Amino acid sequence: MLSRLVRPLVLGLLGLTALASVAYADPDALWKIVHEKCVVATAPCVKVNAGEHYALLKDQRGVAQHLLIPTDKITGIESPALLLSSTPNFLADAWKERAAVDAKLPHPLPRDAVSLAVNAENARSQNQLHIHIDCLSTDAHAALAKVADTIGTDWAPLPIEIAGHHFQAMRFEGEDLGNYNPFLALAKTLKDPQTEMSARNLVVVGATFSHGPGFIVLSDIAPPAVIGHAGGEDVQDHSCLIDPA
For 26-235, which CATH superfamily applies? Predict the structure, then answer.
C-alpha cells in the first residue's frame, strides 16, 4: 500500500500524464494553442513572429525540442499553401530559431547535430503544420557524416538506411537556407504535388561539407506506422544524447 506521502505524488504524476495524453489525442490541440493563446498573449509559446506568421512552442516531449507552428491554418505538408510564393519559408525560419534548442542544453549544438523534421500526413497526430526542431540522433549523425560529401545537388537515393528509412537526399550549400525552400524543392520532383506531398516526410539537417557549411535534405514516402518507423522525426533524439562538446 502506498504511504500517505507517496500516494498523492503518484496520483498527481498520473494526472499530469493523462492531461498530456488528452492534449495530444486532440488533432487540433496545436492549432488551438497557437490560435487561441499564443497569438493573443504569446504564452505558452516562447515567441510569436507576426511578420513571418509563426509561433515557437517548447514541446512537451524532450529536453530541448521546439515546434515552429504557423499562425495561419495550414494542416500539414499536404497543404497547397506551402507551394505559394506568398507563404513564408517556414523551414528557413525554423533553422534561424535553433538557438531555442541550444538554450535548453549545456552547450550549443554544432550545425550537423541540428535537425528539422516534418512528418507525413499518416505519420503525425496533429492537423496543424509543425516543424520539429531538435537534436539529430547519434546514429543518424554518424551515418550522415560518412556520406555527406558524396551527396549531390540533385535528389538521389541515400546509399544507407537511417532510422529505418530509405531516403532520397540532396545537398544545399550555404550558412542558412535563405530563399531555398525545401517544400518547393520536394514538390518539383513530384508529378502531382497536390496529391503526392501528403505521403512525404521531409527532413533538413545542418551539415559541414569539406568545403563549407550547408544542409542535407532528406525525404521519403512514409510507410505504415505499424512497421515501427514512419515519420521524418525518427531521425531525431528528443533526449539529446548527442555530445555537443
Answer: HIT family -  CDH-like (3.30.428.30)
